[in-house]
Write the structure tokens for this entry.
Amino acid sequence: MTIPAEMMALLLKGDGYATVPSGSVLEAMDPYVEFGRIGVPQPDEGQVLIKVSLASINPSDVMFIKGLYGQPRAKGRPAGFEGVGVVAAGNGPLAASLIGRRVAFATGTSNWGAWAEYAVADARGVIPLIDGVSDIDGAAMIVNPLTALAMFDIVREAGEKAFVLTAGASQLCKLMMGVAREEGFRPIAIVRRDDQESLLVESGAAHVLNASAADFKSRLKAVFGAEKPRIFLDAVTGPLASTVFHTMGKGARWIIYGRLDPADTVIREPGQFIFQDKKIEGFWLTQWMRSADPASRAARVLEAQQRFADGRWKTDVTATVPLDAAVSRVADELAKPNGKVFITPG
Amino acid sequence: MTIPAEMMALLLKGDGYATVPSGSVLEAMDPYVEFGRIGVPQPDEGQVLIKVSLASINPSDVMFIKGLYGQPRAKGRPAGFEGVGVVAAGNGPLAASLIGRRVAFATGTSNWGAWAEYAVADARGVIPLIDGVSDIDGAAMIVNPLTALAMFDIVREAGEKAFVLTAGASQLCKLMMGVAREEGFRPIAIVRRDDQESLLVESGAAHVLNASAADFKSRLKAVFGAEKPRIFLDAVTGPLASTVFHTMGKGARWIIYGRLDPADTVIREPGQFIFQDKKIEGFWLTQWMRSADPASRAARVLEAQQRFADGRWKTDVTATVPLDAAVSRVADELAKPNGKVFITPG
């Protein structure tokens, strides 16, 4: 495979973090990235260079390009956390052994993102794909499906059958709830609108609670009183998550993996840490990929692929947008519900 | 020992929790407790009845009688979390085996407090005293000294030499810093005034940072950058603790054991849980007494007694106030610095 000296990519316009917080909706791509030319990177030790076939757009990408994600932006570098492609070069023995393989990848902290003709990823974090997995499924396999399986391991180990999810209508939550129901667990999904309730019950939710409803707090108390959930997997933080954690009983663990709400997160009653043995911690897939027990990591990676290959999971597609049209089209496509938007450099 | 039917005690005037938050200073006893007569309680299964010789007053007692502690008040019951006395009766084999023993005790969740002629405690939580330990030291042995030793175990297990303390001038922190220095650890004590700095350095502090100073935030950054503390033992919560936790680096653990500041506790950057592996948890001695590994619990109990018996630790006394004079005198005595106030029923 001949690697060109230069490539086209969607390059970050901002640097570091945003100084003014804003919401999780992408009003337009133009303030944050531009379509431009850049040199093809050299992978560092332990990294692979991937010729990108297809890249996905996740909520974390939107937060990142806006400067609201917990990693600083590097101005002028390509954005995009996830994609599928073929390994074109590798630095180091593991990386070199992957050359020519079709892989799902997450760019992690490489600063060379997937919204480009070539991307850089940690060789330990790429997933060589089995044949039954399509490029569409591969390009959206890590950030949502693998996070869903990895976080569900936390629920499984904690033992209680009931657990709580915010952003309950997200793709990630729907994937997790399906797995949970298969194993007899009882997800309590918290959403902000009523219109997806039946869809979520179909996806595996035991309860769907609408945070915008007038009786939300009383329903929360009633459901938590009956189900006694201890694990709270939270993608939003802010006042809603504070209320959920405050309402949970003894031994509750608030596990934060996203922060879609930029509003203040207040600990309503710090005494609950002392007298009710409550805890707050975080989950980051990049960290899990580095530090999880290799056997359980391999099992989850295989499970994700099998679920796509045998049709138990499938990726709903809203649009596949060419790289050179992304700046003008992506915001409108993301505004449509219930599917993912992809970017293709070809 | 003949047990009378009735006794005198300082009885709680409030019930449950305060509806209006207030500070940790006791402006007067009168709004919260009254001197009165009540029936001597019967110990439940696993509990002992103790004839109180001396009871202590801790910051947690003040928070409790004001309705600001994480346990609800039971109106008309005696207050007081800690004391020394002789076991007069016991319900169950362990409790009965303690009859006649001089013990340090904490009343925990019994609702029959130490500011009384008789108190009730969990038999597993009382400490039979060795001869060299005075009543004064015994009456103040659990809430501060044992908490100091138990929490220092967390620091020791975490490995890093530097750790952070708020309410750095408290009796508890001074005890802990002394132990820490003996083992080569480096306490970073955060206080609100400058006047105790030399006293704290003498007690074992490697750094003393005054949160009221204009350069507090820059000193915090500089000291944390050099010392890289990971454990934060916090008695205050509120804005100061939020700033401390926010400034700490990767893997920081905020362990809350008191909440002297009733102001809102805001998580400044929830993304730190995700990307920096930070955590919040709590410490409660009552829970530690129930659940700690018995061998390490016994070791810490013995260590506390030996430190008092051989003079390495001693209890500074501001005043010993008779039970019938407590309502009028205690608030004034508590306002004096650097010593403890005791209540004696005899």
Notes: Chain A touches chain B at residues 69-71, 237, 256-259, 264-267, 269-284, 287 (CB under 8 Å). The first strand of chain A starts at residue 6 and ends at 12. The two ends of chain A are 16 Å apart (CA to CA).
